[in-house]
């Protein structure tokens, strides 16, 4: 109970081989803990804040910095709401040396988690460990400031982080403010650097616990025994006053403790090894101060509950999967109404006002969609009635989500629940906010249509591959893989086309850099091997270069592989450049990949113009050739014989006067990839799909009207492929 501010005032707070623990407390006010004195911990000292609730504007602020030598600063398992600042703020300078440990673990905070000194200052770790693991925060970044690692044995361990309700992947850490040389550790991994104070830990147990060496205590093997305090655990009425304990320093020949309480309040008692404030959680520790200084304690009173920052509302639903979808709002076939519930964290309680629902309102985060929250359903939601939960009436309110068949959204819709402080028993400072998201999901009928069209395109492309052997048909399969990797693709589309991105690259499930580098290496390695085998064949048979190239199908087979790899390289490059929080390596490789994507078709055209020298025969003459030749060149036949074998894979699809068009389909789909890789604004996916459809329809028109293919069958197949892909885009845009 209580919303207290702890203030340490003076020049220096020195912990030598001792510890201070602030456990199971409720901290409030403008600053939860403020230390203007520089905190120095040495000789195996511990400063711990754990299991506490923080409802304040600022968290734990060390204004003059922290210095730790073979000691631990632990901020674990705290929860609450911060209206400004971070949970742990280190200003001035922060230094951790000789096996020290700064642990920020298991916290759930509405706000930033960690704020370190910014440039030119920084947090220096020399043979020490910084752990940032298992935390949940909100806002634009997880942390700010600079981490500098020095010496051997220094570690910056990061992992299992959530920001704004979304799990962060290592590739996103930099954009979330985590800058430095860190080692990622996933959730659930048993890692000593995450769980234990290394200097006092012997090993990890089979159940992922710390086995302490001599001098290590507790579950974290801290160098000081600090008992866990459960708090007052009282059921008294809410107090009217809060207490702010301030430690100041005055000079005196001898060290003494001089408490100066404010009248009408309980008198606090201090000792050199233990001090506690009545009606507060216990604070234990050993404090060493210079003998020429005397700390004094003063207790001031302020209005209690109204000075505590309002907490964040916990918003949940009874929908399947825990989150609302478009289909849930439209009815979804369920006869049981879906409930929307908002809960207060302890120790807050709802007021006894019977009209408490009038204090809650709904606000859209972005522009309300006309057929969504901005339409009739939004009015139904605003007029719905909040009632108290039967199981937890003092902390949980619930509302039956209205059903409306006309609800329709083109993108996820996030709605904020705003609640006045008057709805909370005793009030609080500010307003209470929570939010929930209604996910866009393709409606069942549209999903069936999309699946049908996708199946037709994939089937037609597969038939074209078998019947014609053309590379263009593989490109259509790759285009479907691009659609599956788009940021606008719905969950149903991703699930139904999970295998298609692998037509782009065998590394499609990894970071876009893997697609670019992996495909480029595959093409380069194959080309080098093919060239080496061709040279060996020429030396072994003693033939001229043209004959060796013709016999080994060089460079035709290399072109086939490069052609198949190209779309994955180009799409991965643009994806790497467009991804949020792209690092330097993403930008460098992305630019190189885009340049290669433009250079490859140009290089093929140059090769055709300068080195091929092929002439085509009529297509009907090819049908009279032997079966083995028709299988080898199933879509056309041209001469001389050497050239037809050397470049057959490049040009057998094209008519004699249109050989340069062999890269047309590839180039058109590269433009589609360029559009697909862009991350559109909320509600802008339909524009992206319409642009892609326009490019594809233009490509279909060019193929049909120029009649560039060697046969009418090929012209029809490739035109149909473009049209079907465009139709798929239009259906997706409409939905």
Automatic annotation (TrEMBL):
Domain Dispersed gene family protein 1 N-terminal: 126-222
InterPro entries per the UniProt record, alphabetical: DGF-1_b-sheet_dom, DGF-1_N, Dispersed_gene_fam_prot1_C, Dispersed_gene_fam_prot1_dom4, Dispersed_gene_fam_prot1_dom5
Organism placement in taxonomy: Eukaryota, Discoba, Euglenozoa, Kinetoplastea, Metakinetoplastina
Highest taxon, organism lineage: Eukaryota
Keywords in alphabetical order: Membrane, Transmembrane, Transmembrane helix
Region (Disordered): 249-272
Name this polypeptide is given: Dispersed gene family protein 1 (DGF-1), putative
Domain Dispersed gene family protein: from-to ranges: 229-307, 320-438
Dispersed gene family protein 1 beta-sheet domain boundaries: 2-53
Biased composition (Low complexity): 263-272
Positions of transmembrane segments: 513-537, 557-582, 588-609, 659-680, 686-705, 712-734
Domain Dispersed gene family protein 1 C-terminal: 515-735
């Amino acid at each position: 109970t209580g919303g207290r501010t702890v203030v340490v005032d003076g020049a220096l707070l020195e912990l030598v081989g001792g510890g201070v623990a602030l456990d199971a407390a409720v901290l409030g006010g403008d600053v939860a803990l403020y230390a203007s004195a520089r905190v120095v911990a040495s000789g195996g000292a511990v400063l711990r804040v754990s299991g506490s609730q923080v409802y304040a504007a600022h968290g734990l602020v060390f204004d003059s910095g922290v210095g730790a030598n073979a000691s631990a600063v632990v901020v674990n398992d705290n929860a609450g709401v911060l209206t400004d600042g971070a949970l742990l703020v280190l200003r001035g300078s922060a230094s951790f040396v000789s096996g020290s440990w700064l642990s920020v673990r298991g916290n759930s905070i509405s706000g930033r988690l960690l704020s370190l000194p910014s440039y030119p200052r920084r947090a220096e770790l020399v043979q020490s460990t910084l752990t940032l693991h298992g935390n949940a925060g909100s806002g634009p970044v997880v942390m700010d400031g600079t981490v500098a690692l020095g010496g051997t044995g220094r570690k910056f361990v990061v992992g299992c982080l959530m920001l704004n309700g979304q799990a962060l992947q290592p590739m996103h850490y930099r954009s979330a403010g985590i800058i430095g040389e860190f080692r990622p550790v996933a959730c659930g991994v048993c890692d000593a650097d995450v769980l234990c104070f290394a200097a006092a830990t012997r090993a990890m147990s089979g159940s992922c616990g710390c086995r302490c060496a001599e001098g290590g205590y507790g579950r974290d093997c801290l160098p000081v025994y600090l008992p866990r305090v459960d708090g007052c655990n009282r059921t008294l009425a809410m107090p009217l006053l809060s207490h702010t304990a301030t430690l100041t320093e005055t000079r005196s020949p001898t060290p003494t403790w001089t408490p100066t309480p404010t009248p009408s309040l309980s008198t606090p008692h201090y000792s050199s090894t233990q001090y506690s404030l009545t009606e507060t959680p216990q604070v234990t520790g050993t404090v060493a101060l210079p003998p020429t200084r005397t700390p004094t304690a003063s207790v001031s009173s302020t209005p209690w509950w109204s000075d505590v920052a309002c907490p964040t509302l916990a918003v949940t639903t009874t929908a399947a999967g825990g989150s609302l979808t478009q289909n849930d709002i439209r009815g979804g076939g369920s006869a049981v109404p879906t409930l929307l519930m908002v809960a207060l964290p302890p120790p807050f309680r709802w007021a006894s006002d019977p009209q408490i629902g009038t204090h809650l309102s709904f606000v859209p985060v972005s522009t309300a969609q006309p057929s969504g929250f901005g339409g009739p359903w939004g009015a139904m939601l605003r007029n719905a009635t909040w009632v108290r939960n039967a199981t937890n009436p003092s902390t949980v309110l619930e509302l039956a989500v209205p059903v409306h068949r006309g609800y329709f959204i083109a993108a996820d819709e996030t709605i904020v629940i705003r609640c006045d402080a008057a709805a909370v028993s005793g009030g609080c400072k500010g307003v209470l906010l929570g939010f929930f998201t209604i996910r866009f999901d393709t409606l069942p009928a549209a999903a069936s249509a999309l699946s049908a069209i996708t199946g037709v395109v994939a089937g037609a492309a597969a038939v074209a591959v078998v019947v014609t052997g053309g590379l263009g048909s593989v490109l259509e399969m790759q285009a479907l893989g691009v659609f599956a990797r788009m940021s606008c693709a719905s969950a149903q589309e991703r699930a139904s086309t999970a295998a298609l991105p692998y037509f782009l690259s065998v590394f499609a499930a990894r970071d876009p850099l893997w697609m670019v580098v992996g495909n480029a290496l595959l093409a380069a390695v194959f080309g080098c091997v093919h060239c080496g085998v061709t040279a060996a064949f020429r030396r072994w048979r003693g033939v001229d270069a043209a004959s060796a190239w013709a016999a080994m199908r060089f460079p035709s087979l290399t072109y086939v592989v490069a052609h198949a790899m190209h779309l994955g390289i180009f799409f991965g490059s643009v994806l790497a450049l467009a991804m949020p929080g792209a690092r330097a390596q993403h930008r460098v490789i992305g630019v190189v990949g885009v340049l290669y994507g433009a250079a490859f078709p140009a290089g093929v055209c140059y090769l055709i113009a300068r080195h091929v020298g092929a002439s085509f025969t009529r297509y009907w003459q090819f049908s009279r050739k032997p079966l083995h030749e028709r299988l080898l060149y199933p879509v056309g036949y041209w001469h001389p014989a050497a050239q037809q074998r050397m470049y057959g894979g490049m040009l057998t699809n094209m008519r004699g006067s249109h050989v340069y068009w062999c890269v047309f389909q590839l180039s058109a789909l590269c433009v589609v990839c360029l559009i697909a890789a862009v991350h559109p604004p909320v509600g802008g996916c339909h524009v992206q799909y319409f642009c892609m459809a326009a490019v594809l329809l233009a490509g279909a028109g060019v193929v049909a009207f120029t009649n560039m293919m060697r046969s009418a069958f090929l012209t029809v197949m490739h035109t149909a492929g473009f049209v079907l892909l465009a139709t798929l885009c239009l259906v997706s845009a409409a939905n």
